[in-house]
Amino acid sequence: MLFEFDSDQRLWQRTVRDAVSKECTAAFVRSVADAGADPARLWRTYRKLGWTELVDPTDAVELGIVLEELGHAVDPTPYLATMTQFAPLVPAAAGDGASGTAAYSGVAARADGAGWVLDGTARHVLDADRAERLAVVTDAGVFVVPAEAVTVVPLHVFDPLLHVADVTFAGVRVGEADRSGADPEHARNLALAGLAMTTVGACRRILDLTLEHVRGRHQFGAPIGSFQAVQHKAADMHVAIERARALAYFAMMTIAADDPRRRLAAAMAKASAGECQALVFRHGVQLFGAMGNTWENDLQFALKRAKAGELLLGGAAEHRAVIADIVGDGHAHQL
Fold first, then answer.
1. Torsion-angle region of residue 303: left (phi > 0), alpha (psi -120 to 50) or beta?
2. Domain Acyl-CoA dehydrogenase/oxidase C-terminal, which positions (predicted)?
């Protein structure tokens, strides 16, 4: 497995980076958080650019490039949930530009005539309050449910740009036509890798803002970035990000190649991204000082997105346990 971008992927990275810098600006992100600006225009832009068409598993690396850049920009759209949670579970319905998300647990399906009835509550579902469709994982399979068929209760979360909600299914009827044949285990690998990529992007943003700050802030007649203690922390941040970034792209490559190591790689990526954000978060706040904790500083958006990436779908400790189980059982090359 060649572990570097080819010429087409490097061009794609430059193209995505340029588009994000023009369309998902820091000023627009702040307008969403401050004034409740509607990110629908930005979502339509992603659709026009073809970013919602990256639904084939072979496009995983290209999708990862988009997710990293959107994580860096602290994207306020439902792109992450749609492309890494809904699309892998319902590939036949994905790619049409409609937003979606996934409910992985909490919902049971019981047979009823020619179909099923869904009951239960899925908690902490990303973007459930603005998704047009939900992919619901049950013991009877994965079902596609329109948003209007469920009850959604938005939750207050610390990231002002992130949408999380509880979703209640009360006797929702679905038929065979609503059933997806996707493998939830394989789909979850992309969800984990996608969160890892987003977290890495947010951590990159924290480092970029921190470096800009320490180069411009002076103490004792010199920029604080010239102090050895500050340089050591910045170097540690860089190393942690590069390690997590490498593992996140490795996970994306295993998905693209249908490599049997994809489950292990996804768990490694999610664990490494969680550990990365812990260090980058701590050093970023310390190097910025008190001003880094203020609402007026854009650092807070990246800090919150990185922390949310750790908490969603299980933290580093949980995925380290998964890695230990896989390796300990000697199935690293079969699972």
1. alpha
2. 194-325
Task: Give, for 270, the enclosing helix (H) or strand (E).
Answer: helix 262-288
Give CB contacts under 8 A, 24+ apart, made by 313-322. Answer: 313/104, 313/188, 313/191, 313/192, 313/195, 313/270, 314/270, 315/274, 316/270, 316/271, 316/272, 316/273, 316/274, 316/275, 316/278, 319/192, 319/267, 319/268, 319/270, 319/271, 319/274, 320/267, 320/271, 322/267
Better-scored residue on pLDDT, 49 or 294: 49
Q: Average the pLDDT over 254-271 and give the result.
A: 96
Superfamily of domain 184-328: Butyryl-CoA Dehydrogenase, subunit A, domain 3 (1.20.140.10)
Could you report the per-residue pLDDT of 150-187, keeping only the tens digit for each? 999 999 999 999 999 999 999 999 999 999 988 999 99
* Domain 100-180: assigned CATH number: 2.40.110.10
**Furthest C-alpha separation in the chain:** 79
220: left (phi over 0), alpha (psi -120 to 50) or beta: left
Amino acid 331: pLDDT = 53
So where are the chain's domains? 7-89, 100-180, 184-328
Q: State the pLDDT at residue 329.
A: 75
Residue 66 identity (one-letter amino acid) = V
Give the chain's mean pLDDT.
93
In order of 163, 259, 263, 309, 326, the CA distances from 186 in angstroms are 24, 11, 7, 20, 15
In the chain, helix, strand, coil percent, each to 5? 60, 15, 25
- Amino acid letter, 209: L
Report the half-sphere exposure of 223 (CA within 13 A, side-chain side): 10
What average pLDDT score do residues 230-256 get? 97
Cβ contact 63:252 at 8 Å: yes
Residues 166 and 293: beta-carbon distance below 8 Å: no
Please write the tens of the pLDDT for every residue from 280-297: 999 999 999 878 778 889
Span between the terminal Cα atoms of the chain, in Å: 18
